Amino acid sequence: PPLLLLLLLLLGPAAPGQPRDVSPAGAQCLEHECFAVFWAARPFPAASEGCERGGGHLMTVRSTVAEEAIALLLQNRSGRLWLGLSLPPSLPCTEPGQTLRGFSWVTGDSSTDYTNWAPSGRRCGERCVTVSRELRWEERSCEEPADGFLCQYSYGGSCPRLAVPPAVPVAYSTPFGARGAEFLALPPHSRAFVARFGLELRCEEDEEGAGPRWSRGAHGAWPCEVSGGGCAGSCGEERGKPRCSCPEGAVLAADGRGCRSLCQGSPCQHLCVVAGGSFLCMCFEGYRLAADGEGCEDIDDCAGEPGPCEQLCVNTQGGFECRCYDGYDLVDGRCQRRPPCLGSPCQHLCEELAHGYRCACQPGYAEDPLDATRCRLYCNATECPAVCDASDTCYCPDGFVLDEEREEKLCEDVDECDSNHCPESANCTNTPGGYQCHCPRGHYLRDKDCVPVLGGGSEEELSGDEEEQPAPRTPEPSRAPPEAERLHAGVLVAIAAGALLSLLALLALGSHLARKRCRSCGSVDYKYGGPREKELGLEALPSEQKP
């Protein structure tokens, strides 16, 4: 009976969808690919359809490995077999100068590391390719039947041939209809029949994603002589029956053959370690085990004393991050003071201070009153050298113009007083880069006009002291004192003048009283005229009436 079953398996029907008359005459399988030869006269379209029914396509020969597979399949049998090459509809004829002569693989690309064309010129009616016993490629009309065709099947993985004693035969069958006993690898959904033990196995994808492996529907191990009973661990007999066992720290899987770690499916959040027939949860560095013994909690590394950082410490999940105060940079784990002028916005010069920096300007420039980090041209005289760039373009400060008639490139001050910048009633004084307006006594400058001082005013306003007016451009800070300083100076002058006048008046009064007293000295006495309500007087008496 076992021999009969083996015969039925070898001669049984082909795989579903694969007609008997196109069963492969031979096949070769590698780890991820199988190649099969079909000796059946068919045109190119029918041959391509036959490969597709088995889950493959006409063979692509991109390397010498594929060529060697063809040589094994042909076994010196003469005839021409279709390859997976065809001319795209966009090309009317072949292109002999190209690697594939204009042909494309049935997979839609033209990449290859190997060709073996038979000599030929440009062909226009032969749009498909066959290979001969000599392994030469030849163009051929797609509608003419060839002697057979070669198919290629690709897989993600495969099952190895079963390990059995030398005298135990194994019959294999593939999903594309190939049968035999000499396969080195079998694609998924292949079958293996071991007649001696009445054992039928299937190559199936592993549920845990470990790749295809031999299996069967029944639970537990099969005879240990066949690939170790299919056990992931070790195979032995218990009470005359094969039984699988697993190494320490693992238990048998649900099928009775695989091994499952005790940590598989454990509730541990981070790590699981097998210890003493059980498992123990552990956490990554920077975490500690929670009270439930399964979860993990972050450790606040910055809470300890002393802290792990030199200046600032920021706790993160599972760790911490050291940072530095403003003005410091973290270098090799240490905070180093950053040079204050490094990266400063100063346009010209930068001066380092104890707690920062200060911007400065090069000679011929002054600080921009609107932006202390910027510099602008400055001149405190009636003429100064111009600043010229590499293209001989020269620049002057505001309120100055370039004297182009002179060879030394000088900037001359503009006399703004010639342009009537002050009111008609005011006097104008030109300054380097600016000007000053002087209103008459009793007037002050307001909105570019001299207006009277109403209701009294400061000494400066009454006297008509000058009030500076800026040039049409922004004046330099040193060209005129601020208005607050002028007002303060006027007040001081008025106070001093008033004090001097008061002192002179007191001196004059004192001198007058002294002269009057000296005229009556020694001849005048005084008497008290008696108390009177609301009246008190002094009366002069003759000297003979004195007591």
UniProtKB/TrEMBL annotation:
**What is the membrane topology listed in the Swiss-Prot or TrEMBL record?**
Single-pass type I membrane protein
On whether Ribonucleoprotein is a keyword of this UniProt record, the answer is no
Q: Which InterPro entries does this one have?
A: C-type_lectin-like, C-type_lectin-like/link_sf, C-type_lectin_domain, cEGF, CTDL_fold, EGF, EGF-like_Ca-bd_dom, EGF-type_Asp/Asn_hydroxyl_site
Localization (cell): Membrane
Domain C-type lectin: residue ranges? 30-144
Q: Which residues form the signal peptide?
A: 1-19
| UniProt keywords, alphabetically | Disulfide bond, EGF-like domain, Glycoprotein, Lectin, Membrane, Phosphoprotein, Proteoglycan, Repeat, Signal, Transmembrane, Transmembrane helix
The residue ranges flagged as biased composition, category Acidic residues, are 458-469
| A GO cellular component entry from the record | membrane
Q: Which GO molecular-function terms appear in the entry?
A: calcium ion binding; carbohydrate binding; transmembrane signaling receptor activity
Q: Where are the transmembrane segments?
A: 487-509
Reading the lineage from the top rank, the first entry is: Eukaryota
**Does the record's keyword annotation contain Signal?**
yes
Q: Which residues form the EGF-like domain?
A: 298-336, 413-451
Which residues does the annotated region (Disordered) include? 456-483, 524-547
Q: Subunit composition?
A: Interacts with ITGAL, ITGAM and ITGB2. Interacts with thrombin/F2; this interaction switches the specificity of thrombin from a procoagulant to an anticoagulant and antifibrinolytic protease. Interacts with ANGP1 and ANGP2; these interactions significantly inhibit the generation of activated PC and TAFIa/CPB2 by the thrombin/thrombomodulin complex. Interacts with PF4; this interaction enhances generation of activated protein C. Interacts with HMGB1; this interaction inhibits HMGB1 inflammatory activity.
Task: State what this protein does.
Answer: Endothelial cell receptor that plays a critical role in regulating several physiological processes including hemostasis, coagulation, fibrinolysis, inflammation, and angiogenesis. Acts as a cofactor for thrombin activation of protein C/PROC on the surface of vascular endothelial cells leading to initiation of the activated protein C anticoagulant pathway. Also accelerates the activation of the plasma carboxypeptidase B2/CPB2, which catalyzes removal of C-terminal basic amino acids from its substrates including kinins or anaphylatoxins leading to fibrinolysis inhibition.
Instruction: Write down what this protein is called.
Output: Thrombomodulin
Q: Which gene encodes it?
A: Thbd
